[in-house]
Amino acid sequence: MAKGLIVQKFGGSSVANVERIQNVAKRVVEYKKKGYDLVVVVSALGDTTDELISLSEQINKHPSEREMDMLLSTGEQASSALLAMAIHKLGFEAISFTGAQVGIITDTDFTKAKIIDISADKIKDALKKKKIVIVAGFQGITRNQDITTLGRGGSDLTAVALAKALSARTCEIYTDVDGVYTTDPRIEPKAKKLPHITYDEMLEMASLGAQVMQARSIEVAKKFNVIIHVRSSFNKHEGTIISKEAKRMEEFVISGVTLNKNEVKITICDVPDKPGVAAKIFSKISEGGVNVDMIVQNVSHTRQTDISFTAPKADLSKVMRITKKAAANIGAGKVLKDEDIARVSIVGVGMKTHPGVAAKMFSALSKHDINIEMISTSEISISCIIKKKSGEEAVRALHAQFNLA
Ligand code: ASP
Ligand code: MG
User: Fold this and answer.
1) What are the residue ranges spanned by the domains of the chain?
2) What dotted CATH number matches 5-176?
3) What is the pTM of this model?
């Protein structure tokens, strides 16, 4: 008997080779036997996407973004067809489709397109015929029939968007870890799997460096209340449920600690202390498409001040070029860069109602003699910029301080 629809997404490591694809096929078929309707979203095999990117770079350092999407979308097309074949081999009916075939319509922002609409007609037809439907993740098509991709990690977004469009009962995200952890277990072996986490916490963790799911996909899940279950494709353990409210005991003020080493700190020295200068600098940077984060301006007793901010490491040369030019234009001094930084953050909805969390964080760092260079906060997170070499130690110190083990 039909029990309802589940969307299952399998990441690149879950379909990295023949044996793993066969393993996914078995897993999917088990659910089919239990009476579920299934829509299965797949990523490209293993590191296929990275390999395609490096191929393109060898041919053209600045490839057209439209052609990039033509290229990258092939990875998921291949894995979806292979999974369908593996399911056929087990004696079950399955059919694979590209994003375009199932009507995932996007805007024309190649390499990071946004989904505008999903018709899903072909999926509904195939489900009616009792077939297991496989959809190539990470891709869509513009109204002009050009293939687009949804940004790195975009298969998560395909899965969440399809779960919403088809009113699925849950969206299962299969990956190579057992769920969302209190911190990266490679840094702190005492890290624990969280049974529940809220969309907001997961969003903070994703944007602060925990690489379990694509941040955009969680925004969409939050908007439409799609319940997500992150779990391992290599065992049957229950993973982490991501939903609006986490069912857990109140005492947990902090849910997780994250570490991000992919940022740089830029400092503009001797900025004239008068209205409009910050606007001038940061509008130039944003025109350049760089997302700056933590911004700190020192109090000045002279008429000059220093402004520091962080930016993604990948944008370093661009942001230095733009900032130097902007600094010269407003009569500021030198522009310094510091690549030797890491961001350590704590995340938790409990922060809203518990005072003293920041003080507790700072004292844990000070006990370990770790100097804080910058601080920023949101409603449910606190981040500190520290020296890169202290990153792992800071994570362990905070994990212990907030009793996460
Ligand atoms: N294959 C794409 C990537 O590696 C999309 C995905 O894995 O979700 O970014
Ligand atoms: Mg991938």
Assistant:
1) 5-176
2) 3.40.1160.10
3) 0.88
